[in-house]
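User: Can you predict the 3D structure for this chain?
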Amino acid sequence: MLDTLKYSKQLQSVGVSQAQADAQAEALREAIAESVATKAQLDGVAAALHSDLSAVEQRLDTKIEAVGQWLETKINNVEQRLDTKIDALDQRLNGKLEGAEQRLDAKLEGAEQRLDGKLEGAEQRLDAKIDTMAQNLSAEIRQVSADVKTLRWVVGLLAGLVTAVLVKLLLM
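Assistant: Here is the predicted structure, written as structure tokens:
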């Protein structure tokens, strides 16, 4: 607060008359009193501000709670939609995998059947070649056997002739 006596004395010390210095000090005190708030006024403003702040805080808390619930609902909705999409994708991919597995199984079975057919054909050709070779070998063995019998007969005949010739030579 303004000390009007001190202010008036300062004015008087620089040559202002006492009446003028007192008038100026009083005018200044009134101007300051009108423009400066009292402690009671400040306390009232502080209480009003505190009340306003409490109301704003309550409104903000309510809005924050509402936004939190709204966000939670939105997040749950998004989560449900994503779960649904993931499940649908999982089903589609499983279907595609099963289809691919069936196609590959069919291809493998076809390849196995073709290979079995080729192996059976090769086996039959080998069996036929072996049978042919066995028949040829049997024929050759029969021919050799017949040739051996013929040779025995010829050797026996020659032995008989040689014996007859020797006997005739000896008897002569």
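The chain has one domain: 37-171. The chain has three helices and no strands.
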